[in-house]
Amino acid sequence: MTRDNALLGQDLLLLRNRRDQTTRERGRDLSTRVRPETNQRDLDTVFGAENMAQALLLRMLTSEGELRQLGHPTYGSRLHELIGEPNTEANRNLAKLYALRAINQEPRVEKILRADVRQRRDDRGGVDIDMQLKIVETATPLNLVVPFFFSTEQT
Asked: How far apart are CA 98 and CA 134, in angstroms?
């Protein structure tokens, strides 16, 4: 296992497709694989940079305060508050702010190198929150794209 993989850890693979969360079945994301040595099915895992990207995306997909009863009152983001709102410059700026706040809560992120919100070409209500992050004790920056969808109506 490489140093970066050891540092960023391993977890269950919960998001089969990090890019397309519109087809996500919350609570049914577990993936399995066949273990070659036993030919039995086992839960699939993700490690290193992919694990870090999954962890950050899960933080974005979780409503801030949703895990309060589990002892994590600030975990999550406020992005859910913008779902259904018009795709305006002010709301895109709020989406960027909410994403940055959530990323700043992650102790493995040393620095946010870049953060942009780009309009999706194929969807008037869709944007991509595109970030480049410096992860603690790693040399290669992590590129993370968080898809987000406002209302298709514009004011």
From this structure: 19
